[in-house]
Design a protein that fits this description.
With 263 residues, the protein is an alpha+beta fold. The protein folds into two domains: 119 residues, N-terminal domain of MutM-like DNA repair proteins, CATH 3.20.190; 124 residues, Helicase, Ruva Protein, domain 3 (Orthogonal Bundle). It is built from six helices and ten strands, in the order αββββββββαααααββ. The strands form three sheets. It has a four-stranded antiparallel β-sheet, with helices on one face. The structure holds a DNA duplex (16 and 16 nucleotides).
DNA sequence: CATTCATCCTGCTGGC
DNA sequence: TGCCAGCAGGATGAAT
């Protein structure tokens, strides 16, 4: 569910609340999310970092990896409150951080610094990092025979794009999702590259896209769903040319595109 | 190696 | 109204 923009909104909101706070207690309500919480009780929260869709809560030598999967939420409240599908409760000196996850595809793992560095390195290029240049983009696309939609969803190459923003980025780039990466012209690659960051930035300005489960750290929704051009719009007319938007399963995920604007 | 596909889980919606 | 197939913002590991 949450893609880069949603995770980044949560990170920005949370960092203001929890940086410098002490982790006083951890309560694990579902063993699927078990981690040795005692090891980090008493630690100070040094930072909250993001790469792609992954969050890393820095606690001295330990890092807590947080991934929201399809339905994960991180809600900060001043007092302990009950939410549906809560899995892990973090009690901080100034409040409570509740991790909820209806579908249980999320992850909470405690990693030693070295392991965190290794995991971090295995995550692909983050579009908001300084390394995300056209040159590096060309390198990761080099020789790839997979469909461009699959390429965008693969977190080992570029990290953070999920099913909604993949469709939105490809529409804005005028590229058909079935196109193989190695058939894209230089001009098309440039177009694709130049649309990735602006779409994600626009979504962040809207505090993310709420279709179903996504909630900000205060429980409120995002608003980018009102500005989607193709995602979820099968049968509606293309905002650019008026043709009907099509839905097709690509890589087992619903993909939306305009058959006449995207070649 | 690269690529495709089922699978993990729970709940909701739409068609019959 | 009831049932059931299909769908949902992700990622992985097995099979090919």
């Amino acid at each position: 569910m949450p893609e880069l923009p949603e995770v980044e909104v949560i990170r920005r909101e949370l960092i203001a609340k929890i940086k410098g706070q002490k982790l006083e207690k951890v309560e694990i309500l579902d063993n699927k999310f078990y981690f040795p919480g005692k090891a980090v009780v008493g630690s100070e929260i040094k930072n909250l970092l993001r790469k792609g869709k992954y969050l890393f809560l820095e606690l001295g030598d330990w890092h807590l990896l947080l991934h929201l999967g399809m339905s994960g939420q991180l809600i900060f409240t001043e007092e302990r409150r009950n939410f549906p599908y809560e899995k892990v409760i973090f009690y901080l000196s100034n409040g409570v951080l509740t991790f909820c996850d209806q579908r249980k595809f999320g992850r909470v793992e405690l990693l030693r610094r070295e392991l965190k560095d290794k995991v971090w390195q295995q995550i692909g290029l983050d579009p908001f990092s300084a390394q995300f240049t056209f040159e590096r983009f060309l390198q990761v696309t080099q020789g790839k025979s997979q469909r461009v939609k699959d390429f965008l969803l693969n977190q080992k190459r570029i990290a953070g794009i999920g099913n909604i923003y993949a469709s939105e980025i490809l529409f804005r780039s005028g590229i058909h999702p079935q196109r193989k990466v190695n058939t894209l012209s230089m001009a098309e690659k440039e177009k694709l590259f130049t649309h990735i960051k602006p779409v994600l930035e626009e979504a962040i300005r809207c505090q993310g896209t709420t279709i179903r489960n996504y909630a900000r750290s205060n429980g409120e929704t995002g608003s980018f769903q009102h500005f989607l051009l193709v995602y979820g719009k099968a049968g509606k007319s293309c905002p650019r040319c008026g043709s009907l938007i099509q839905r097709e399963k690509i890589a087992n995920r619903s993909t939306y595109f305009c058959p006449s604007c995207q070649k």
